[in-house]
Amino acid sequence: MATIELKGVEKKFGDMFAVKPLDLTIKDGEFVVLLGPSGCGKTTTLRMISGLETVTAGKILLNGKEVTWRHPSERDMAFVFQFYALYTHLSVRQNIAFPLQAQGVKKEEIDRRVKEVVDILRIPHLLRARPGKLAGGDQQRVALARALVRKPAAFLMDEPLGALDAELRESMRAEIKNLHVAQHATTVYVTHDQVEAMAMGDRIVVMSRAEVQQVGTPIDVYYNPANIFVARFIGSPGMNLVKGQLAGGSVSLHGGNRYTVPPAWTDRLGAALGGTTEVILGFRPEAAQVSAQGALAGEVYATDMYGGHTVLHVNLNEDEIVHVRSDRQSSYPMGTKVRFDIDPAMVRFFDPRTEHAVSSEAT
Amino acid sequence: MPRFEERGPRIAVSQATRVDKVHPRAKALRVLVALVSVLVALIMLLPVGVMVISAMKTRSDVMSSPPKVLFKPTLEGFVLLLTDRAVVSQARQDELREEANNGKLGLFARIALDTGMEITGPSNYVARLRNSVIIAGTSTVTSVLLGLFAAYAFSRFAMKGKNDLLFFILSTRMLPAVVVTIPLFLMYRQLGLHDKHLGMIILYTVFNLSFSVWLLKGFIDEIPREYEEAALVDGYTRMQAFFRIVLPQAVSGIAATVVFCLIFAWNEFAFALMLTSQRARTAPVGIATMMGRGGIEWSAIAAGAVGFLIPVVIITFALRKYLLRGITFGAIRG
User: A87 lies in which domain range?
Assistant: First the structure.
């Protein structure tokens, strides 16, 4: 199939960067998710790969061959749009056959391949319908069929599930993932939904303000965020970040709490901060365990019941509230004093000056 | 346990949903409004009605005062309009009478014998009607086609001074037509375009172009770019995407634009009067100049006007569902 390489690809609108110089290699058969808040440049990046948007600088390589200035029709990539872009004046069958007609495929071959993809997507009963009359999920399936039928080098998907309701989104997510596994096709998938990114991606490219923040596997991005933005953006709720002062092997937090730095970190932390004492302590809600002898103390500010688990909003001092996941289904009334510990393997530190994570290698 | 009925409606009644009870005064007002609109419509249609009726009256019926409401319909007006006639000579009349006695007289010969007039050929109004068809038809096609390409470019591509260009295009319609007829007349004389079909086609095309660019741009703006982009990544060139995707999606806009352009070119009078004399003269001017050639042939003029209306009525009627979109365009979306 295809590998896609971006080398220093950037896009400027006037003086403003839509995408700052970006290097990325997408391996053959890989499912890469471009994740970020709206306006971060993820869709622009996808459109540059497809050729619908020109690049301001840099190179795009497909299977080692440069395609930077190739017309979109010559790149052999299928694009699935957020609002499907189905041709309303054509029937479903004509919609799916449309890309094959461009290639001059023979009629029998077109019929055969259309039948093949509608069977895969379980929509053979829709062939005669007009796309405008279909439900959202079916429109999405037709759009996927139109992409699949070509057997393209790569699939580019721009928030394909964004227009669906929550329940349908979940089932379509599994469907797309299954398709990808079955077809083993290189896929670049754009979304602003971190749950979707975590669930689907082999690798996630987190973007913000026109810049790549981190590239990594979902586990990587989740447990070892490269910076404060990624730590906050991934996870629901995001990583807890608490400011503190490093002094003598422990971090003292506002409000009197003192957190003893795990031994594995002590040397690295001092070196990384280079003499300054300001540090940000980060931990995931599930890394904290409520216990009577816990090292950190706070007051319950609110509780979110999720059924399977409960998330406590714990007030450490006037303006710092952290989320602590509790598996207990018992409720904590507002104002309850609680103590909790942080799993030393899951604690992370950030340098407040650069907002970058202190490397967690060897942990 | 309370009975179900005692609880009243389960959902709070926040709005009156009954429509069967309307205040008598409101009802009366509604009837009044309907009556007035029908009346206004009738008044508007009266001249058209008179025209249609006159077209079917004989020469004497048309002139009678008070106007005759009941009369024997005839196609005399149309015959007068579309044919040239000559008085049948005495020798020819004798000849025809001879043939009649032998019992082998054709239809036209009998008419000639009865009326003493013989049809010698089509009148020059027929040629003018043909001119109108050629000029209005061609100029409509070219202005819509050119307008379509321009509108697509304006809608889709970034270009320098786009708004200025669009304003300039619009500004060509700001002068009343009469103001430019004299300079145009002089220019056309110099360029040899006076009284030429080409001259009129160019003129109407240019005049309609601004309108078609603006109207079509609005329609194309409404077609999401994703449609073409999908076609582009599916392996089509921009031109192919334009013809296979944009055009079918813009069909209602095109239809509306066609009707408006056609109506203008078909009805146009002032330019045609100034810039044509014989060869390229169009029907509206033809009808008007029919007055004052040996008395006014009212039935012929009415017949001309009716015949002239028919094509526009048919086309407008055929495309009426698109027209509504064209007229209310901008007010409603989607």
Answer: 4-227
